[in-house]
Design brief:
The chain is an alpha+beta fold. The chain has helices at 13-20, 114-119, 122-142, and strands at residues 2-9, 33-40, 49-56, 59-71, 75-82, 85-96, 99-109. Strands 1-7-6-5-4-3-2 form a 7-stranded antiparallel sheet.
């Protein structure tokens, strides 16, 4: 399942990139994030891995984030794995008139037969992605 979503952030690109990579403030805009632990590599370097621990409705879930490619100021490619579900996110950044355009190209890979069922819920996945991007936008613009 693939899709792309963009938001415009009313802050300059250098500031947006700095905050996007700030693991300390991720807790302020990533809903349900309780822990973010570096488990491999160096912080904010290609190949580094983080364990993300989320709390939602009394349940704890863990996800692994891998920083696959960092091509600043243009893009940061991340991969998220939770069980057998794989999510590749190409986070692209550009600037126009002092505003930043943040676009996420997302590819989810689900195991069969779950992949067929998940296609029916594509709009929900897009909605959740946009919700997270807007939370980031709102956080950045509040600073």
């Amino acid at each position: 399942m693939k899709y792309s979503i963009s938001v415009t952030i009313n802050k300059d690109l250098a500031y947006v990139l700095k905050e996007f990579q700030n693991k300390e403030t991720a807790f302020k805009w990533i809903e349900g994030l309780k822990e973010l632990n570096l488990i491999e590599g160096e912080e904010n370097k290609e190949g580094s891995k983080y364990e993300m621990v989320f709390e939602s409705k009394g349940k704890t879930q863990k996800m692994i984030e891998t920083l696959e490619k960092i091509e600043l100021p243009n893009s940061i490619t991340t991969r998220y794995q939770m069980g057998k579900v794989n999510n590749l996110c190409i986070n692209k950044f550009s600037e126009s008139s002092g505003q930043s355009i943040y676009t996420m190209d997302t590819t989810f890979v689900f195991p069969f037969p779950q992949n067929i069922l998940m296609m029916l819920f594509k709009s929900l996945f897009k909605m959740e992605t946009k919700k997270g991007m807007i939370a980031f936008k709102n956080y950045i613009e509040s600073l």
